[in-house]
Amino acid sequence: MKISQYVGVFGNVSLVKVFCMECQAYSFVRNGETVCCDGPIVSSPELYKRESVAEEVRRLPPIADRRTILEEQQHCCFYCQRAFGSICTRNKKRLRLRCEWDHYVPFALLQDNRSINFVAACHVCNRSKADKCFQTTEEARLYIVTHNGLTD
Questions:
Q1: How many CB atoms lie within 10 A of CB 20?
Q2: Reported pTM
């Protein structure tokens, strides 16, 4: 019987680990079975634990990558899809949307500064997202748009 499952985070790599009652130790999971005893694993863990020290310094993507990301997103927020520089209303106040660089998978979780982990987000959506993690882009957009309070 296996208990105490979690995802071990090693730098930018995450691996499922479980406590094996037979070995009385934590084991990695490969192809749905423990590496130690080949016991089947049924459920999926929701807890994440950092198991190696990462860089711990937030960085921006290189300038060339920032330009590419902005072009791919057509100079719009990844989440609310409003154009940067456009005027919106939030809490009865008008504001101009500024571009910020958001770690799609939160830096607090993976400490991943690779360019593939960045999106251009307006400052309102970036702060609404904070350190939340989502399974899909659609889930992230739905959550953030319903919580950011922006209107045209």
A1: 19
A2: 0.66
